[in-house]
Amino acid sequence: MVRLADLPEWERAHMLEKIPNLPQFGIRAWVAEGGPLAQRRVAIVTTAGLHLRGDRPFGQGSASSDYRVLPGGGGSADIVMSQLSTNFDRSGFQQDINVAFPIDRLRELAAEGFIGSVADFHYSFMGAGSPVTRMEAKAREVAGLLKKDRVDAVLLTPV
Residue 92 falls within a domain, yes or no? Predict the structure, then answer.
């Protein structure tokens, strides 16, 4: 990912202008403490703009707040990135999907008994160009899907 100091002045100013409009989440925990990780069902939620090969890629505009479902049992070769940000270096993802979507690491943790299980489904949003306030309705929708899949822990990979 590019450093703020490495951006052209106009892009740096554009990024810094967004800060006052970001929502304040406070310091309160989002959920109460739960059981040990060895008993948790874990899903990945990413903003890397990932989708299955053949699925519709992410686009700009109103659709940028949408998400794509990534099956937990699928192969890594079936997942592609349509990240819109010109500031995002895709080379790490192209070499190892686990940089943005650590599904293989989760499977290893489950096999070792460090986590209880890997969710059947994972979710990807497009982080670039999506105002966080516009994503709330879809985030709530995904939360419902996670509950339906009995997920009680989420690994967030913001890209």
Answer: yes
Asked whether residue 2 is domain-assigned, the answer is: no
Question: How many alpha carbons fall within 13 Å on the CB side of residue 116?
Answer: 16
In a domain, 56, yes or no: yes
* pLDDT band with cut points at 50, 70 and 90 for residue 24: confident
Q: What is the pLDDT of residues 88-102, one digit of tens each?
A: 666 667 778 888 899
Domain residue limits at 62: 38-157
Please check whether residue 131 lies inside any domain of the structure: yes
Question: Residue 119: how many CB atoms within 10 A of its CB?
Answer: 24
| Element spanning 104, H or E | helix 103-111
Domain count, the chain: 1
**Residues 86/10, Cβ–Cβ less than 8 Å:** no
**CA–CA separation, 144 vs 138, rounded Å?**
10
Query: pTM here?
Result: 0.80
